[in-house]
Amino acid sequence: MTDTTIIITGANGSAALHAVDHILTHSPSFTLALVVRNASEADPNVWIRQLDLAHLQEVHDFSRTVASEISKGTLPLLAGIVCNAYWWNLVDPMEVIPPTIPAEMDKLDLLVKPLPDDPAVANHHGYGSYRYGMSKLAGVMWGHALNRRLEKDQDAKLQNITVAILNQGGITDLRAMPRNTPRGMVVISKVMRPLVHVVRWVKPYFRLAAYTGADMARMATNEACSGERGYFTLLKKD
């Protein structure tokens, strides 16, 4: 369905920038609503809004704004949402990594705050990778749960909404990589980057952000995996 809107969060991220370029180039009939943590000057060809996903009230306000814009005809009907935003920090202590979880939700603490950083532990910085992995797991669990809820909904229109979780692969040219990343990972990334065009023929999992962005765009526009739901690795259903 063209002449509709696709929302992309984390729209200034490595893969998202390529996804935006792919959609504007190959599917220009779609309207893009780009969401970033810190908004800069708006491009006249897209709808850019600031949204910090760590603040629930901002998410509610943004959702109401989108619904209002659609109802007034300012934005075309919503066709898809690409949830690409993330917080990258694999080195700093846990206490400085947002979002925080309210005290009354302490049962969720172990999901996003599994263990306190302990300098006495030799690989205490590994907790950063652990937290990052747990946040990925939370996204996968949420996606599957939302799929089940939509499939069981009594509204036939909601039953047709699908949720796809995309494992983007090992991106070697992440813009976030030089920051908040253990030195060893940065070195490996720099070594892999010029070799990725050769390595990807043996290990397709390692790739550049441009390939991932194209996959995101193809899923968002239903060019790939149309009507499917569940977990995918490089566009292949797992």
From TrEMBL:
InterPro entries per UniProt: Ergosterol_Biosynth_ERG27 (IPR051593), NAD(P)-bd_dom_sf (IPR036291)
UniProt xrefs under Gene3D superfamilies: NAD(P)-binding Rossmann-like Domain
Gene Ontology MF term list: 3-beta-hydroxysteroid 3-dehydrogenase (NADP+) activity
GO cellular component terms listed in the entry, alphabetical order: endoplasmic reticulum membrane; lipid droplet; mitochondrial outer membrane
Source species, domain of life: Eukaryota
PANTHER family cross-referenced by the UniProt entry: DEHYDROGENASE (PTHR43647), KETOREDUCTASE (KR) DOMAIN-CONTAINING PROTEIN (PTHR43647:SF4)
Record-given protein name: Uncharacterized protein
Organism of provenance: Podospora didyma
